[in-house]
Amino acid sequence: PVPPGTVRADLHRLGYPQYLRSARSGEIAAVALPGVAGLVLMTVGGAIIGYRQASAERMVRVNAAQRFLP
């Protein structure tokens, strides 16, 4: 008899191909690295674009305010 809540080792990842059942941490990291790099690239790109837009808006606002000053 097997105690409740335990899983047999051979049934733990039933349905996964053999190469996924025995994947090591380094192999998983190597596969995930391009996705993580893409997320970082999109985040940095968005920050740069947002900074440029904020800077441009600040300049437009200053120039617009100068029209009303003597």
Describe this structure in words.
The protein is an all-alpha fold. The protein is 66% helix and 0% strand. It has helices at 18-21, 25-66. The model has no long low-confidence stretch (mean pLDDT 81).
Count of DSSP strands: 0
Report the mean per-residue pLDDT as an integer.
Answer: 81
Q: What is the N-to-C succession of helices and strands?
A: HH
Bin the strand percentage. under 5%
* Helix share bin: 55-70%
Radius of gyration: 27 Å
Transmembrane segments: 28-51
Keywords: Membrane, Transmembrane, Transmembrane helix
Please describe the topology of this protein.
Layout (H helix, E strand, L loop, with lengths): L17 H4 L3 H42 L4
List its traits.
single chain, 70 residues, mainly alpha, 2 helices, 0% strand, transmembrane helix, membrane, transmembrane
Give a nutshell description of this structure.
Helix content is 66%, strand content 0%. It is an all-alpha fold and 70 residues long.
